[in-house]
Amino acid sequence: MENGSVILIRRWPAMLCWLLLCLVPLTNQQQARAGNVGTTQWSDDETHFNRTLDSILVPRVVGSRGHQQVRDYLVQSLNGLGFQTEVDKFKQRVPVLGELTFSNVVGTINPQAQNFLALACHYDSKYFPNDPGFVGATDSAVPCAILLNTAKTLSGYLQKQFQNRNDLGLMLIFFDGEEAFKDWTETDSVYGSKHLASKLARTRSGAQVAGKQAPRNIDRIEVLVLLDLIGARNPKFSSFYMNTHGLHSSLVQIEMNLRAAGKLEGNNNMFLNQISGGLVDDDHRPFLEDNVPVLHLVSTPFPDVWHTPRDNAANLHWPSIRNFNRVFRSFVYEYLHRHTAPVNLRYY
Ligand SMILES: *[C@@H]1O[C@H](CO)[C@@H](O)[C@H](O)[C@H]1NC(C)=O
Ligand SMILES: [Zn+2]
What we know:
By secondary structure, the chain is an alpha/beta fold. It is 34% helix and 17% strand. The chain has 10 helices and 8 strands. β6 (237-239), α8 (245-260) and β7 form a beta-alpha-beta unit. The longest helix has 21 residues, at 318-338. Bound molecules: 2-acetamido-2-deoxy-beta-D-glucopyranose and zinc ion (ZN). Residues 1, 126, 139, 179, 307 line the site of zinc ion.
């Protein structure tokens, strides 16, 4: 992950923005109809969160024993939560460490559905020659634990009402090899995500309509929600992409509603109703380049422990983690629950 090169967001014609905002599932109208969006009660399961985080929070550089253990743990956990799980495995030569075997882990509920909500994080930890103990708590053990905890706390819904829907499936993606082995460049970074995006772009499945080819699998992703650098004190999340700004606004709204209902701790507003002046390069790059709408939930500025030995359990901020879990869980539930027709946020 890096924000060294700040790219200005392109300006979109105002008309286009209005059009796109109308297409997001949580419009103001719907919110008014449904009352207090986001305050539906889904209980925390922090025992599960802690157990999950403990299992992920080990050094897990690609190719290491810890990496293999965490990968197996992710597969097991997804299966236990009712996901159909696939491992996208491939070999590639990288700087410094030579040839490595990478494995993206992808869990899906309703794999036959027409479209998907995809939630993602990276599970590899960064290789530091002088710090073999680096565990990357915010980068990205906590984001991965949040994804599994979201599935766990919503499992009553996911494994009953949500099952067997044809319009929408839920995909949890644990990318491998996000981190650079030497210096962050387009080639030395996001190895797993490049591989998975190109595989999804080459394969087709799903419904064929009126003699047309089945859609490319990558085009079945309605939005890729990427979590990164979460777990430090008082994070701030800005909106990065115009086509998912409406979804970002629903996070702002859900946080406000939960706070008003007394369901959040402290008084830090995490989700800013603000468009970021720059972008952060991350696992979403290959998907973005293939026109997949991206909601990038990365805290900016980065946590000050970022890429230091202090990015560990001792420096996590639990009220912020609990608040994020609550807001994010509601957001995922509302997206799935309110989905009635395909959501097309694509730029073209
Ligand atoms: C989870 O771990 C945190 C940090 O150790 C601790 O403060 C919290 O009480 C734990 N929660 C549960 C339910 O054990
Ligand atoms: Zn990193």
